[in-house]
Amino acid sequence: MTTISLFDLQTFLRQVVALNFPEALWVRCEIAQLSKSRGHVYLDLVEKAETENEPIAQASAAIWQSTLKRLQSKLGATNLNPLLQAGVEVLLRVKVEYHERYGLKLVVEDIDPSYTLGKLEQRRRQLYEQLVAQGLMGKNAQIPLRPVLQRIAIISSATAAGYQDFLQHLGENAYGYAFKTTFFAAAVQGAQVEVEVLKQLRAVQRQATRFDAVALIRGGGAKLDLAGFDSLALCQAIADFPLPVFTGIGHDVDETLVDLVAHSALKTPTAVADFLIQHNLHFESQLAELSQYLRYVTAESIHVALLQLAASVQALQTAPVQLLDRQKDYLQRFAAELPLALRYQQREQWQRLEQMEQICQLLSIEGTLQRGFSLTLKAGKPIASAQQARQGDVLDIQLKDGTLRSKVE
């Protein structure tokens, strides 16, 4: 049986690797973990299956201090640091090495930021389509703003320059408006953005009645620094948030998905502060216009009332005289017409009396007898029906020229 020592095996493997990988390779992978020690950066790299989130390959890599300085000089620290974050997909130029004691290691020589940006943009488009499908775009923007925005919940990093700019701009506004701000600390770049911002959004929501709006702000930085704000969970939380959310994440060109679902997306923290100040100024201007209108309406009403009062005073001065003149004219006409009216009425009354006298004469007993009628009396009392007479009764029949006596048989 042939045997070989472990060292010889490892030496053989080192030679195999050196012969088969004489030059550096560009490798696509994801940074699973990252640590730093003595100026060096150590990476755990993985590749995950497309349909599952489980690694199908894994390797260790290192960026030596000299290489790190060269990359920082080439790309700039603000562009390199966002690439070296857990969960970021990267394209690395690596030298494959094998050590008898430490095994296989990939030594990073270069990094291509355009690959990572492309992956982020691809992922961003996919998330955007999900947000549209879920109806979250513009949802937070439908929340009506209160007339005055004064109680502001700020989600930011205490060390962010944008946070200090925001506070200074609010505090030194030219109109003397007072703002009450409450700070909620969260990472605004790196892998912890989603977790920490979500945590602070929940903290604000638990006391939502204390605030008028939320300001999510950070200072300027590289485009890759914004990757944490292209988060589905973060966008869902902001879209459904009960308060208007304003973003000022410090980039003049690029928009994140968080910007798209927020109530209002401003470019910088200072722009958010300006928005709040101008909103309150608009309300104050409306109050000033209303006050001016009320003064005008009040003055106009007083003017009209004074005119009416003057007219009433004048009317009170002239109306009694005019009334007395009219009454005097009436009395004079009445006095002139009264004798004529009395004579006319007297003549009418005499005519009526004469008519009544004629009627009375026609309706009297004598008048009735003169017209050919007779009056039958029984015991001196008139009877009108044959039923009132009995056999043997003596009746007197009165005619116009005398009386006849008869007996009922």
TrEMBL record:
MF terms per GO, please?
exodeoxyribonuclease VII activity; nucleic acid binding
Q: What keywords appear on the UniProt entry?
A: Cytoplasm, Exonuclease, Hydrolase, Nuclease
In terms of domain of life, where is this protein from? Bacteria
Q: Name one GO biological process term.
A: DNA catabolic process
The reactions it catalyses are: Exonucleolytic cleavage in either 5'- to 3'- or 3'- to 5'-direction to yield nucleoside 5'-phosphates
List each copy of the OB-fold nucleic acid binding domain by range.
Answer: 5-112
* GO cellular-component term (any): cytoplasm
The Enzyme Commission number assigned here is 3.1.11.6
Q: Work out whether the entry's keyword set contains Hydrolase.
A: yes
Specify whether Nuclease is a keyword of the entry: yes
- Sequence ranges assigned to domain Exonuclease VII large subunit C-terminal in this UniProt record: 138-357
PANTHER family under this entry?
EXODEOXYRIBONUCLEASE 7 LARGE SUBUNIT
Q: Know the name of this protein?
A: Exodeoxyribonuclease 7 large subunit
